[in-house]
Amino acid sequence: MNKQIKDFLIQQEIFVNQKRVYHNAFNTEKGEIRLCQIIAKPPIIPNILQNFKKIYSVQSRNVIQYLDFVESENNYYIFMEQLNQGTLDDIINTQNINEDKAKCYFREILNGLKSLHENKITFVDLSPKNIFKSDDSIKIGQINICSDQLANMQTEEDFKKFGIVKEIIPPEILQNQTIFSMASDLYTASVLYFKMIFKRFPFNGETKTELIDKIKENNIDFTCQDQAVSMETIDFLKQTLKYEPSQRLNWSQVYSHPLLKLLNIVNDYIVQSTLLSISINKLITRSDLVTKTFDCEKNRQFYQEIEQNNQAVNNNNNIEPAQNNDNALNEESEQFKKQLSIVKDLFKSQRTTLLKKQVDYYIEQRNMYSSLSETLSYVRLFDQEFKSFTLQFVILKIIYLISQSLIQQIEEIKYATKPEQCFTQNLQEQYDNLKKKIDEEHKIINSQFNKMLEQSQSNLERARMRGNVDQKISDIINKTSQYTLFELLRDQTKQFIEKVPTFNQIIQNKKIDPKTQYEIIIQVLFSLALIVSYLLKWSPTQILQKSPIEYLEYIRQESVETLITECQQKSQSIDQAFDKISKAQIRQF
Fold first, then answer.
1. Are 462 and 367 contained in the same domain?
2. Is residue 312 part of a domain?
3. End-to-end CA distance of the chain
4. Overall pTM surpassing 0.90 (yes/no)
5. Taking all residues of the chain, what is their mean pLDDT, rounded to a whole number?
6. 241, 272, 304 — which closes off a domain?
7. Confidence (pLDDT) at 265
8. How do beta strands 292-294 and 32-40 pair?
9. In the prediction, which pLDDT does 409 show?
């Protein structure tokens, strides 16, 4: 299948999950492979578009990133990030999950649910087939799309027809007795936790009626052949798998329960993605930017505030008529508060969009100076033979300019509106985390640049005394004209590339093998390609033909002959592109 939908070219089918078909989708604008889920019409709940608009704003390491939603005459097309490491269902069916591992997966599910609850999304489709594996975490795959059909489903075949696992559906929703709630999400998550440990569901029934009866009986078998199960797990499941939602633990109690408290260390960093763990030389993706924490107390406070607000609303609804008359005087004030809330939500949506764009902008520029930093390491390695500090200076100067641009951009978000009014707690943490990374990196870059500037000026002074200084180099170091800076980068890079075959290895004083030579040359060209494409507002794939990360993997696997051809082609492409760059574009940079 090759079908163009907006900016996506839908390609081969990956797998089918009942009414949902998954395809690879190539983003022709950004040159990236994404995932497309195609849902045939019907079934789908009427307000799915509204729900998907909500989920676009969710940025969480435990929720799949949604990119676009398109409706055609026959289908819904849902575009999302590419996840090809399997599902929770695959893990359950192929691995023996011990209790500790199940707890880790469980808290990842809870983290994802909290991010959705912050955006007022409840009752997601927590089927094991819709929870995806991604590196060191798992991601909730999609919101529920067939819930309005539940009332018409009775037998196992009815549920399978729509790809729904009835055993994970809360009894109140099976009976269509209530609107979706966070209490329902807790029941479903607990069923999954039970399934991971015991390899079966806590309740079973051939029909929906039989299943509901079993849930009412609440006779759960906690025997496990594979492992000893802790009392904390058993107690937790007893209190969250009850038939009546009101009798289950509420969410603030969940985060006070020993099951999670035993796992908790204040601000327990599972993986902390900062400059200390991400080398400047490494290309990054969005998932590298998310601080991975599990903080019971912070999550407990979040849910406690919601529960207290709900209780206040319930108490207000039960006020005597005479009191209601008094409260009518405050109706105008309440209306004003509602309008203010709408305005805040609007600002929050705008700031969310702005932050997402800034993250993408950061990744683009971060990968530019990551590649430049890699090139810089080669230049320094062979600097004695290259006999020039100028290229080092130029590379660092461009990295410095990129870093300054990032700082300016992130500060603009800060002053767009007041953060305390327009960011959710999760978004505020993301903003703070991103700002911290940029600030930390800039300090390192600034320090390196200042040292190199001093060294370059010293070398320049010695060259002046000898009378063999190049005036263009002198102007660049003294005035740092950006247009001539990029011209010099291109010229000095060409000189460096021409000399690579003559460089001797530092160790054993041997010539570099041809494979390594051309990998170095391509790395240097790769840096130039990123910069040129960025200045022209092109996608890097217009020069590289692949995404940056895919391109480097491709180069490492190819033969010397292919690399020689690749070098020639890329050098020509970069020269042609560079000639299109105007002074105005560089001044804008």
1. yes
2. no
3. 40
4. no
5. 77
6. 304
7. 38
8. unpaired
9. 81
Q: Which two tokens stand for residue 52?
A: 């998907």
Backbone torsions φ then ψ of 77, nearest 5 degrees: -115, 120
Helices (H), 169-294: 171-174, 182-198, 208-217, 231-240, 251-254, 258-261
Question: CA dist 488 to 477, 523, 572, Å?
Answer: 11, 18, 17
What's the pLDDT score for residue 123? 66
Do residues 181 and 228 share a domain? yes
Displacement of CA 263 from its chain's centroid (Å): 24
Same domain, 279 and 160: yes
**CATH number of the domain residue 35 falls in:** 3.30.200.20
Domain range for 73 is: 3-80
Residue 103 lies in a domain: yes
pLDDT of residue 474: 59
Task: Give yes or no for a contact between 33 and 12, defined as CB atoms under 8 angstroms apart.
Answer: no
248, 286: one domain: yes
Q: How far from 290 is each of 235, 429, 436, 537, CA to CA, in Å?
A: 33, 9, 12, 26
Residues 6+ apart with CB under 8 A from 167: 191, 201, 203, 204, 211
Q: Decide if 321 is inside a domain.
A: no
Q: Do the beta carbons of residue 186 and residue 248 sit within 8 Å?
A: yes
Distance from the Cα of residue 126 to its chain's centroid: 19
pLDDT score at 270: 35
Amino acid at residue number 324: N
Write down the pLDDT at residue 221.
93
Same domain, 182 and 288: yes
Residues in the chain with pLDDT < 50? Answer: 264-278, 417, 419-420, 507
Identify whether the C-beta of residue 173 lies closer than 8 Å to the C-beta of residue 206.
no
Residues 146, 166: Cα–Cα separation, whole Å: 12
| CA gap 169, 156 in Å, rounded | 13
Compute CA distances 358 → 23, 329, 406, whole Å.
28, 45, 9
Distance separating alpha carbons of residues 526 and 570, to the nearest angstrom: 8
Domain match, 66 and 149 both: no
pLDDT recorded at residue 467: 65
The C-alpha atoms of residue 247 and residue 515 are separated, in whole angstroms, by: 67
Q: Is the N-terminal amide bond of 43 cis, ω within 30° of 0? A: yes
Coil, strand, or helix at residue 469?
Answer: coil
- 429 and 359 housed in the same domain: yes
119 and 58 in contact (C-beta within 8 Å)?
A: yes
Give the pLDDT confidence score for residue 551 in this predicted structure. Answer: 81
Contact call for residues 394 and 476 (beta carbons, < 8 A): yes
Single residue among 479, 504, 536 that ends a domain in this structure:
479
Closest-CA residue to 106 (of 200, 285, 237): 237
CATH, residue 230: 1.10.510.10
- 3-state DSSP percent of the chain in helix, strand and coil, to 5: 60, 10, 30
**If you ran DSSP here, which 8-state letter would residue 289 be given?**
G
Are the CB atoms for 484 and 476 separated by under 8 Å? yes
In sequence order, what DSSP letters do the residues of 268-330 get, joined into one string? EEEE--STTTS-TTS---GGGGS-EEE-HHHHHHHHHHHHHHHHHHHHHHT--HHHHHHHGGG
pLDDT for the residue numbered 275: 37
CA distance 260 to 253: 10
Do 265 and 129 share a domain, yes or no? yes
Position 464: which residue type? R
